Structure formats: structure tokens, C-alpha cells
Amino acid sequence: MSEAKIRFEMVKRRHKKRFEEAVKKQEADEAIIPLCEFINNTKHFFTSSSCSGRILLLALKGKRKRDASFHRKWHRKVSFEEVWRGIEDAKNCELWFKTEPFIIHIGASSLKKAEKILDIKNKAGVKRGGIIVAKPGKFILELIGTEEIALPVKFGDKIIVSKSFMKEVVKNANEKIEANFERLKKFESIIRAELK
Amino acid sequence: MSEAKIRFEMVKRRHKKRFEEAVKKQEADEAIIPLCEFINNTKHFFTSSSCSGRILLLALKGKRKRDASFHRKWHRKVSFEEVWRGIEDAKNCELWFKTEPFIIHIGASSLKKAEKILDIKNKAGVKRGGIIVAKPGKFILELIGTEEIALPVKFGDKIIVSKSFMKEVVKNANEKIEANFERLKKFESIIRAELK
């Protein structure tokens, strides 16, 4: 076996193990498990940390607001009421409402195999991402959807958005997260058809 | 000359010409011209369409709102007044307020040279992007900053945000666009130190 191949097998084994542990502990994002399992069972590919997309309330703390934590996180459509409750419950932070598209990390055994993923990305209309690590035996791709919303909703204890505005934003966020899941489904179906 | 090398020279010539024409017609984003010129004068790299980052009002039209056009666009900090005037002036569209980080496209002559750009990306703390085209003689990288805001502000003729809320958003957008320019500067200084 070539050095690159040994390295790939080693890296793949490590990532696969980490994924299986996350599934066991129910820490993995459910909507993306079948796709990850399919990729991990191919010969030349594996997945690393991935997310199907989410709606969230992000709390920024500290002087430079670099300390970010999930105040709420949903991998699904949300109701205005649960979002508003989440906003009311937040304390002593700068709170942001966000939708984030899926983000998938895929390892490939060679540049040629990595190119294959770039082809599939283009076919599925996934706009963002590319090869982020390129070493013999270790090619990692990051693929990201595009549907995004991001706005501040609370500073300290002061809610800065109105209920009627947030109702519109939540409606829009639900549309965007649906479109995101549709794109992910399309990507998954092309992956299943084209990867061996 | 190898086939890959001929291809690289051809692609580089085409992109360089396009860039020079854009500068002549004053269509290029000024803040990014020196960086592009530096890269275009190296042996193994060139730039393709790039943007230093911007604050904008985006108008979505048509049934599925896929028809997007710039209602306003600023490659700089903005005042609340000019943003609000822009919002008031928009007609018959779904209007979004956004900040978008820089996006830079760099061509490299080989995988090894492309890896060099990935290294610089990591050193500069540029979070998003990677190699998006990987063909002999044609490696294209896309690098993207991270500071983003995106929210709907007007549906049809109805403004859905309050003035006081938009004042906070504009303040935040100005902070984000500043941080974006700072990161771009850091990236440029590392590029100048490390590329030949």
C-alpha cells in the first residue's frame, strides 16, 4: 500500500469511529445520518462533522462578544411562539436570530475523487464550498448551502424587534430551512447515484 | 511547455485582461485592486472576480423571488439616513438589508500552489472557502470572510422594521464591515509576504 493510501485509511477509520460514537450518544444531527452512513460505506470517501441546517438563537457574551453559545437550536421548522419564548428567556447577552444552511465535510482518497465531489456539488446546485485540505491521502471538502438569515434581536435585557416583524422573519426562516432541506435531499440523491 | 502550463498561461491571460478592462471602465471594486494587481503580477497566480465586502439593499422580484438586483450597494460604512432613504425608495419588491463579506477568487498553476493559498487562508483566519475547480493547469480557489447580516426590511410597499431597530442594525453592520476590511487587510499582508 502506498503511503497516501495508508494515511487515507487511517484518517477514514478515525473519522468513522467518531461518527459512530456520536450516533450512539445521540449527538449526531439525525436528518443527515443516512447520508453520512452511505458515504462512510464507500471505498474512497468518508464524512467529518456535518449539519443538516438549523434555525437558532445565538448568545454572544464577553467583552468582544466572541464567546458564542446556542441559546436555542432547531434542525426543523419553528413556531413564532417558541422563538419568542426563547428571546424572552435570554439574559445578559447579545442575542442573534439565525438560519444556517447545511454544512457537510467529506474526505476523499485522492484529488481525482475530490473532483468527483466538486462535480456533484455543481450538479446539485450547492453554491458554496470546495477542497479545504489537500494533502496526499487527505483531501477534505467542505460544502455549504446558501439560504441565510442573521439579525440581532436583543441587547442585554432589551428586545429590539417587534412581535409582528419577528412573525415575518420566522415565516421566512421556515421557507429558507425548507429550501435548504430540499437542496440537501437533491445533493443526497445525486451522491447515492454517483458514488461507489 | 507542458499541456497544463499552456492551459494555465491561457486562463491567466484571459482573467488578467478581464480585470484590466474592469479597472479601466471603473467597474472594479477599488479597495481590492492593489491586492488583485499584486497577485496578477506573480508567476503562479491570478485573480478572478473579487469583492472587498459590502453593505446592500437587495431587491427580490418575480413570483419565486429569484430575480435579485442591487437596490443600493456600498463598499464602505453607511449612515442610517442613506439606508432608510433607500428602504423608503424601494417599490414593488421584497427588500433585504445585508452585509456581505469579501469574496476573492484566485487561480493557481498547480495543486501545490493552490495549497499555498489554503495555508495563507488559514494563517489569516479566513474561515470559508477552498479549491472550487481542480483541473491540470486550472486550480481556482474561492475565499470568503464570515461577517454577515441578512434580514427582510420591506414587503411590497410595507416597511416591516422600525427606525430604532434599523439604527441598531446599521451600527452593527458598520462594525461588521470594518472587521471584514481588517481581515482582508491581514490576508493581503500575508499574501504580499508569502507569494512570489
For the record, what is the CATH homologous superfamily label of the domain at 3-52 and 78-88 and 104-144 and 161-194 in chain A?
tRNA wybutosine-synthesizing-like
**Structural class label of chain A:** alpha+beta
Largest sheet of chain A: 5 strands, antiparallel
End-to-end Cα distance of chain A: 20 Å
Choose one word for the global shape of chain A: elongated
CATH architecture of the domain at 3-52 and 78-88 and 104-144 and 161-194 in chain A: 2-Layer Sandwich
E-strand count of chain A? 9
Which pair has the most extensive contact? A-B, 29 and 29 residues
Low-confidence stretches of chain A: none
Please give the CATH class of the domain at 3-52 and 78-88 and 104-144 and 161-194 in chain A. Alpha Beta
Kindly summarize this structure in a few lines.
Chain A has helices at 3-24, 33-40, 80-89, 111-123, 163-194, and strands spanning 45-51, 54-61, 67-74, 93-100, 103-108, 128-135, 138-144, 149-156, 158-159. By secondary structure, chain A is of the alpha+beta class. Chain A binds chain B through residues 111, 114-115, 118, 128-135, 141-142, 144, 148-152, 155, 160-162, 164-165, 168-169, 172, and chain B through 111, 114-115, 118, 128-135, 141-142, 144, 148-152, 155, 160-162, 164-165, 168-169, 172.
What does this structure look like?
- Two copies of one chain form a homodimer.
- The first copy, chain A, is an alpha+beta fold and 196 residues long.
- Chain A has a domain at 3-52 and 78-88 and 104-144 and 161-194: tRNA wybutosine-synthesizing-like (SSo0622-like fold, 2-Layer Sandwich).
- Chain A contains five helices and nine strands.
- The first copy, chain A, has helices at 3-24, 33-40, 80-89, 111-123, 163-194; strands at residues 45-51, 54-61, 67-74, 93-100, 103-108, 128-135, 138-144, 149-156, 158-159.
- In chain A, the strands form two sheets. In chain A, strands 3-2-4-8-9 form a five-stranded antiparallel beta sheet, with helices on one face. In chain A, strands 1-5-7-6 form a four-stranded antiparallel beta sheet.
- In chain A, strand 6 and strand 7 (138-144) form a beta hairpin.
- The radius of gyration of chain A is 19 Å and the shape is elongated.
- In chain A, 38% of the residues are buried.
- The mean pLDDT of chain A is 93.
- Chain A binds chain B through residues 111, 114-115, 118, 128-135, 141-142, 144, 148-152, 155, 160-162, 164-165, 168-169, 172, and chain B through 111, 114-115, 118, 128-135, 141-142, 144, 148-152, 155, 160-162, 164-165, 168-169, 172.
